[in-house]
Amino acid sequence: MAELPSGTVTFLFTDVEGSTRLWEEHPNEMQDALARHDALVRGAVEESNGHIVKFTGDGFHAAFSTANDAVAAAVVAQRSLGAELWGATGPLRVRMGMHTGQAQYRDGDYHGTALNRAARLMDAAHGGQVVVSGVTAALVDGHSAEAVDLVPLGEHRLRDLAEPIAVFQLAAPGLERDFPALRSLAAFPSNLPAQLSSFVGREGDVAELAQVLREKRLVTLTGVGGVGKTRLALQVAAEVLPRFRDGAWLCELAVVRDPAGVVDAVAGVFQVTARPGLSLEESLVAYLGEQELLLVLDNCEHVLRPVAALVRAIEGASPRVRVLATSREGLSVRGEQIIAVASLEVPDNTSSPEAVSACEAVRLFMDRAQGVKANFVVDAGNADAVAQVCRRLDGVPLAIELAAARITTMNPGELARRLDRGFRLLTGGDRDAVERHQTLRATIDWSYDLLTEPEQRLLDRLSVFAGGCTLDAVEAVCADDPIDMGDVYELLANLVARSLVVVDDTGPDTRYRLLETIRQYGEERLAEHEETDTLRARHCDWYSDFASVVQGHSYGPAQIEWGARLARDHDNLLAAMAFALATRDLERAMQLLGNLPDTMLQVDDIVIFDPAPLLALPGATDHPGSAVALLRAARQAESRGNDPLALELCDQALAAEQRLGPAADAHLAMFACSLRGQVALRAGSQREAADHNVDAARHARADDLPSMTAYFLGVGSSMLRWLDPAAALSLATEALALARQTGAPIPVIRNLMNLAAALALADPDQARVLLDESLRLAATLDYDAGGIFNDAVYTAGRLAAWPTCLRTATRALHLQLRSGGTAPIYLAGILNLVARGLAEPRPEPAAVIQGTVGIVLHRATLNTATPDTRAPAQTNTVATFIAQVRHDTTQRIVAALGEPRMRELRAQGAAMTEDQAYTYTRTHIDDYLATNPERLP
Predict the structure, then answer these.
(1) Which of 231, 350, 640, 735 could pair with 751 as two cysteines, CB 3.0-4.6 Å apart?
(2) Residues 731-749: what's their mean pLDDT?
(3) Three-state secondary structure along 714-753?
């Protein structure tokens, strides 16, 4: 082992893709195949001056002194593996990952983050593929024994949850070049946040929890504040993410103040809205019923009862959902596995400097200290002091991070003495009197006392924010004696440097937030200064003004960008309204409601205020804002399928506006027409629905809102698409021209789709161009709205663009699972179109999907709409088109499988529930597209 390279080392990890399946199918042949694999890879490594460190399952961990040698070994190994004749097992396809960095060699093995990074890169690769980090790529100097190219694959987040890294694919003669997208975090459905600091220690805990989650459906991590429950849960979620078809999802409950808000918070993560006839909780449970995902519920301790009730409901309906919760105590749900998160390992009094450096607590201290002082190391001169600090802090991670942040102004010895003195003062001189659960509080007190008064007061005031905030918000809400507006940024930077504030600069706006333990501490201090109500009122006013600014941009070219900003402050907006309602402040509540953009103008995480509590406040019925509240209530009723109530509330809203005067920028007439159009469409009257939307466009034009004029003209076009193609084409043409003039992206995206649909038969080539442009623009702007995907499925089907039809159908069906808003007849059409798209490559699932159509149609007649008395008698073209598609599909399936097998498979589909049907369909679409990647919008 003495010959192993040290210092800067390039690590190569390899693994046989699909080896578990091969062992199960060919146990005898695999023994010989793997022996030949081992010889080929070992030979390539040793020929290139590398060293096999150890076996890793069916692969290798190798180390090289230079990146060039590692690259040469990977190329030779892949060529040899590709040229080998494998027999019954088929080719062994090996994935490889490579990274260069500093590593320590001790106890017969390497240690350090460089190894983890190489292993993560390998995990993200596909069989036959070699991927290298940007660090390694920069060290390949062109003098390698092999002629290679490094193909950039972009930046990717690996499963250590750290910031994205640049990844390259190794290309050389004799190696495959074309692979699906990397299996990095972005390849899996997830909202797991990027972590701005590395994960240190607890490797064993991660592995243990990953295994427990295989066996238990509910796992709760318990422990004192600051012990690292959240960070551990996120790391485990990233580790197990590839197991879950539908991903891993974080719901942060610390921001939920009202127990009734738990369901809203979890539903918001998945953007689930109440289905017609169901409550929000029932809709959420129904949505999760067929999902296969991990739900991480963070900080449950203050809402234990509602969390426990929701988890029970989810477990009862969702056999493939796993829940990982963090709380200071268990949820008391049957079958719950409670795991207490212990402090990090600390060195004992007799540890050598080497042993001190190896302890988890010291590794964390060193990592965080190097974040503020790059040249800091633990050595013989300071090891005892660092060990004393970590022991004094009981290995509590947050306490250690707070202490390490002071390393720029105190050496480890001074830190140890200061901490010991502070703890003696807190405990009356008995240094052992601070119990483990009090350690963090004592450390926060100590760190807080070292702040200047303005820094202390800023920390206190930051506690009013929910889920983070921007610098502008901090300046507006927190600047007041003794904090000068011009000093806010510097004070904030000081708090960041001391690990008291977390900064997130991964998005378009830098955001600042307090860890929940620190936020609760600041909240207590704020109350001591009797500033709570003052700061919360200021917070409410700021976010009311912010919502108004967003509303102003909702009609222009930056509508999606500003909509995303609004979504990022979802929790702050809810907290602002909660304060207004709690203080029964009618003016603030109505102002905030009126300033919030209508839901049809929002994007991403939709913010919805329940208007009922506002309308119940004293004096609400005589307030001009009540008209907006009534119309929002009407929209809420319509979204839940209660059309009579929606129309009644809509009339009340317009009457209130006439009686009390118009609210500023409310545009009630426009939105009322739109709502009536939705009600008419659900009733089956497309012509009436179109007329209402043309009226909405007229009001928008009168209000000088050209982008909304274009939007509603386009909606009218979509209503007439099958009923009156000539009128639909005229409206869509006008709408797209106007939308392009305004530059507002949502009307452009939707009207590109509308015009594509209108031209599908008359000019299919132009329709393909428009369809492609609409989908690409939506993808570029991350605009995810159900209507365009429903339209895209039909338009692509009419154009026989089956890959595009399938890709958009999986999105449309997912959105249906979230909201249940699409009419049954259109859903039946989407299922028939998917079956046609899969009929030739996958006839068996296509037949099952055909069978599911009946369970959707039980809610509707074969006709798409109630006959429109103002329309000439004509064949229902939607039904005719879908009937032709179904007939064509059936012929193809029968030709491939025979009629008896087709009927058997259809019966399987007919036995499913609706949600099972949509999930089955999505699963088979995704599986087909993943194994047949095409360049599609």
Answers:
(1) 735
(2) 95
(3) HHHHHHHCCCCHHHHHHHHHHHHHHHHHHCCHHHHHHHHH
Pairwise CA distance, residues 167 & 154, whole Å: 6
Question: According to the model, what pLDDT value does residue 305 have?
Answer: 93
Which residues, 6+ apart, have CB-to-CB distance to 142 below 8 Å? none
CA distances from 720 to 724, 752, 764, 825, 867 (A): 5, 16, 19, 16, 13
CATH of domain 203-340: 3.40.50.300
Strands 165-171 and 130-133, bridge-based pairing: antiparallel
Judge whether residue 106 has pLDDT over 70: no
Calculate the alpha carbon distances from 441 to 53, 221, 273, 410 in Å. 44, 20, 40, 21
| pLDDT score at 11 | 92
Question: Phi/psi of residue 579, each to 5°?
Answer: -65, -45
- Asked if 798 and 761 touch (Cβ cutoff 8 Å), the reply is yes
> pLDDT tens, 884-937?
999 999 999 999 999 999 999 999 999 998 888 998 999 899 888 876 655 433
Q: Kindly state the average pLDDT of the residues 13-18.
A: 89
Cis before 900? omega within 30: no
Mean pLDDT of the chain: 87
Is 164 a residue whose pLDDT tops 90?
A: no
pLDDT (mean) for 869-887? 68
Which pLDDT tens digit goes with each residue over 490-526? 999 999 988 899 888 877 789 999 988 889 899 999 9
By residue count, the chain amounts to 937
State the DSSP string of 6-73: -EEEEEEEEEETTHHHHHHH-HHHHHHHHHHHHHHHHHHHHHTT-EEEEEETTEEEEEESSHHHHHHH
The secondary element (H helix, E strand) that includes residue 55 is strand 51-56
Q: What is the CA radius of gyration of the chain?
A: 31
- For residue 457, give Cα distances in angstroms to 449, 454, 525, 526: 12, 5, 8, 8
In the DSSP assignment, the letter for residue 597 is P
CATH no. for 7-184? 3.30.70.1230
For residue 422, what pLDDT band results from cuts at 50, 70 and 90? low
Q: Encoding tokens for residue 405?
A: 């942040």
Those residues whose C-beta lies under 8 Å from the C-beta of residue 693, and which sit 6 or more positions away, are: 673, 674, 677, 712, 713, 715, 716, 719
Per the listing, tokens 């995303």 go with 564
**SS3 of the chain: helix, strand, coil, percent, to 5:** 60, 10, 30
Tell me the whole-structure pTM to 2 decimals.
Answer: 0.82
Q: Are 223 and 340 in contact, with CB atoms under 8 Å apart?
A: yes
Report d(CA 335, CA 570) in Å as an integer. 33
Strand 94-106 and strand 109-111: pairing? antiparallel
* 816, two tokens: 């249906």
pLDDT at 433 over 70: no
Burial 825-858 (b: 16+ CB within 10 A, else e): bbbbbbbbbbbbbbbeebbbbbbbbbbbbebbee
Question: What are the distances in angstroms from CA 474 to CA 124, 532, 734?
Answer: 39, 15, 45
pLDDT of 307 > 60? The answer is yes
Angle between helices 899-910 and 877-897 (to 10 degrees): 120
DSSP 190: B
3-class DSSP state of 626 = helix
**Dihedral, CA of residue 46, residue 50, residue 53 and residue 59, to nearest 10:** -70
Band (pLDDT 50/70/90 cuts) for residue 420 is: confident
Unique residue bearing structure tokens 């003016």: 587
d(CA 733, CA 7): 66
Beta bridge partners of 100: 10
Count of CB atoms situated within 10 Å of the CB of 512? 21
- How many CB atoms within 10 Å of residue 212? 15
CATH for 453-514? 1.10.10.10
What is the number of other CB atoms lying within 10 angstroms of the CB of residue 621?
15
Q: Residue 624 is encoded by which pair of tokens?
A: 């001009």
